[in-house]
Amino acid sequence: MAVYKVTVATGDMVEAGTNNSISITLVGSYGESRQTSVSFFFLPGKEKSLSVHCGQDLGPIVLIRLHKKRLFLEDAWFCKDVRVTAPNGTLYRFPCYQWLEGITTVEVREGSGKKPVDDKLQILKDHRRRELAARQEAYRWKNFAQGWPRCLNVDSIFELDSNVQFSCIRATNFTGFLIYQGASHFLSGFLLRRSSWNSLDEMRTIFSRSQGRDIGKCLVCCPLPFPLH
Question: What Pfam families does UniProt report for this protein, alphabetically (predicted)?
Fold first, then answer.
């Protein structure tokens, strides 16, 4: 009998917790565990610990499967990471950092960075192929207009997976930044100006140093598709 200690961490953002059922399967080089229930109630920023009992040593743990099942109402869950301690004391880390929605199973690889050539096990090769196919299906491109860079083939950001949309906090900060900048430019006479600028130096006076810092912070999260000179 081999006993693995597992710790499952929930993200600390708003509504990261869930009251849906979460279970886990450990996948090692020599085999995999049975599906084991973690809990049916998670709070943001909290961790759940459990023991997974296996009939034999699974070898190095290379993959985990997180299973989410709806009990009554759908309640998305944001998994931060999973840590697995083997019977010999080896610690394996599985960074997840994504939302699980609906009835779903998500596979997460062990956190060591590896190239495709490093995947010796067939299960890891199959996982990489499935992940690539899923991304190619989710992110398709289209031409917005002749001569323009291609863009995602969606009509709204709400058609995208929750994991690639702005979080509520980031969206609120971005909206607040736009309102602040719009008000500043309005009071500076930038928005209602009817005459041409006399020089580049006159245009530079519109943007104070503090506004420049704010723009820099915004561009970290939302880079423009063209360079600023």
Answer: PLAT
Give residue 186's domain range. 166-210
Residues 175 and 197 in one domain: yes
DSSP calls for 49-103: EEEEEESS---SEEEEEEEEE-SSS---EEEEEEEEE-TTS-EEEEEEEEEE-SS
36 and 135: one domain?
no
- pLDDT, one tens digit for every residue, the chain (229 residues): 899 999 999 999 888 999 999 999 999 999 999 999 998 899 999 999 999 999 999 999 999 999 999 877 889 999 999 999 999 999 999 999 999 998 999 999 999 888 888 888 999 999 999 988 988 887 888 888 888 888 888 777 776 767 766 555 555 556 666 676 667 666 556 666 677 777 777 666 665 544 444 444 444 444 433 343 3
* Residue reference for tokens 């299960």: 123
**Where do the H-state alpha helices sit in 149-197?**
168-187
Q: Let me know if residue 29 belongs to a domain.
A: yes
Considering the domain architecture, whether residues 42 and 97 belong to the same structural domain is answered as: yes
Q: Count up the domains in the chain and report the number.
A: 3
Instruction: Judge whether 183 is annotated as a binding position.
Output: no
Is 212 part of any known ligand binding site?
A: no
Q: Do the domain assignments include residue 220?
A: no
Is 17 annotated as a binding-site member? Answer: yes
